[in-house]
Amino acid sequence: MKESSFCSPKIGSVAAVTLSDTAAVLNAEEYASKPLSQGRTGFPKQSGQSLSYWLQQVRCDPLLDHRTTEHLPQQADTVIIGSGISGTLIAKHHLETWPGKSVVVLEAREFCSGATGRNAGHCKPNQWRHFAKFEKAYGREQAIKIMQNEATTWRALVAYVQEHNVDCDLWVGDTYDVPLDDDVAKVAKACFERYKALGGKVDHIRVTRDPAEAAKISRIKNAKACYAWKASTLQPWKLTAHIMRQNLKSGVNLQTHTQAKIVSVDPSGRRKWVVLTLRGEIACDTVVHATNAYSAALEPSLRGVITPKPHMCNKVVPPRTMSGSKALQNSYGVLLPDSGIFSINPRCTADGVIMFGGSNPGQKELDRWVEQHPENCINDGLSRVENVTECVREFVESNFECWKGAEMSPGEGFDYSWSGIIGLSADGVPFVGELPGKPGQWICAGHHGHGMARIFTAAPGLVKLMDGETWDATGLPQVYQMTPERLQSLQSPAGDAPTIAIV
């Protein structure tokens, strides 16, 4: 077995195993797609969770522990569980659709302290790279529609931020997908050309396949090609907070530090459902599950269908040799030889701190460790996991000319990392719709690590369904729809759910 050049030997105090080289597959069937421990789930950690960089920036914001009323309301028309971008946007569109209905948003911990407040800060619409895996799973039409929907989602997010002048560090510019070896470049080319031949929209993508030119454009020394199109980075907590503040002005009741434990039928018959929380009960007619990775803890039918998994994000302060006029000016998806990916957000319109997310070899070692210690599936208290950080360090020193050998003074370098919990859906796409057999309970969850590129259309789409409109009215790909048939297929041990990689 050949040792990976991107991996260090430890995960904290846990010994890691050596990674073997794997064939280039462009994230189509990467490690994270392999079967996970069936049924592992859990509620959000109530103590010891790490602080993301986004959450570190807002420690004095009273929205973190906001409770609109001192006591939990005894009843409401609608209860939304989860205050991330899904729950917050659903509340917004709910208010616009039914301004007279009462809405309570429950959050288990601080406001927006789950995946939205812990991601790497991208809204990057995939515009070709994942076409092959979705075509294989769902056919050409749906695969193209998924690509189109992500572009629509990105435009909707940018339009909202610009129209409302939201202070959330929005950057709009070229994102680069950069294959890092010849085999990956060949797979990338084949996928791109097939997508183009089958009718995919590619005229907005600039393709450079000469390695020397790709390296010049991307500033990544070992680049073999470069694919460029428009995307965004942002401070996701601040965007979500802006929307929630507008919701509060319109009458939403936000209850933080109020963990939902059980949803059951209202025994009194006055309402359909009762949501039991650690602070008491609230009766309602409509429940919206917007808890993403934690969905199966609250809804047993989703065990093995939505599975939590910790992912690391690294905050890196670049050296002076890559600061100022020499700072990175683009976001990246760096496609690694082992079928992993570095997601890079340089915050080039904000503070210049570089965020590294994605699935590098160190992350894969962490995945294996979690498989062996499944109680950590909801552990967002991880920090400074050296396996992951060492992979980032080796990448930047090998690929950024101005980084290797640069003097690192106090305050520069590999400053901090934290974990967030991804909600892996069993078939790789989110669930949007009514929970089968539970009229009045709805879900928008299972975003498979790619929620920012889906939720700005998925959330309003869900509210349209709640209002009795047809699926076609949502504009979403049909494969996102929660149906009894889809759920039953995924629940079955013999189910043939398509293998879909994490983003």
What does the secondary structure layout of this molecule look like, with pairings?
Blueprint: E1 10-11, E2 14-15, H1 53-56, E3 78-81, H2 85-97, E4 103-106, E5 122-123, H3 131-138, H4 140-164, E6 171-179, H5 182-197, E7 206-208, H6 211-218, E8 226-233, H7 236-249, E9 253-255, E10 260-265, E11 273-277, E12 280-284, E13 286-289, H8 295-298, E14 306-317, E15 331-335, E16 341-345, E17 354-359, H9 361-372, H10 386-399, E18 413-425, E19 431-434, E20 441-445, H11 455-466, H12 484-491
Describe the structure.
This protein is α+β, with helices and mostly antiparallel strands and 503 residues long. It folds into two domains: 10-42 and 171-231 and 307-424, D-Amino Acid Oxidase, subunit A, domain 2 (D-Amino Acid Oxidase, Chain A, domain 2, 2-Layer Sandwich), CATH 3.30.9; 53-117 and 243-305 and 427-449 and 462-491, FAD/NAD(P)-binding domain (3-Layer(bba) Sandwich). The protein is built from twelve helices and 20 strands. Strands 5, 6, 7, 8, 14, 15, 16, 17 and 18 form a nine-stranded mixed beta sheet that branches. Strands 9-4-3-13-20-19 form a six-stranded mixed beta sheet, covered by helices on one side. A three-stranded antiparallel beta sheet has the order 10-11-12, with no helix packed on it. α2 (85-97) runs parallel beside α7. Mean pLDDT is 91; it is low at 1-36.
What is the fold named in CATH at topology level of the largest domain? D-Amino Acid Oxidase, Chain A, domain 2
Number of helical regions: 12
- Cα-to-Cα separation, first versus last residue: 26 Å
* Record field, number of beta strands: 20
Report the mean per-residue pLDDT as an integer. Answer: 91
What is the CATH class name of the largest domain? Alpha Beta
- Tally the structural domains: 2
Question: Quaternary status of these chains?
Answer: single chain
Structural category:
alpha+beta
Radius of gyration: 22 Å
Low-confidence stretches: 1-36
Main beta sheet, described? 9 strands, mixed
**Range of helix content:** 25-40%
CATH architecture of the largest domain: 2-Layer Sandwich
Taken as a percent bin, the fraction of beta residues is 15-25%
The rough form would be described as: globular
CATH superfamily of the largest domain: D-Amino Acid Oxidase, subunit A, domain 2
InterPro entries: FAD-dep_OxRdtase, FAD/NAD-bd_sf
Domain FAD dependent oxidoreductase: 77-453
Organism: Bimuria novae-zelandiae CBS 107.79
Pfam families: DAO (PF01266)
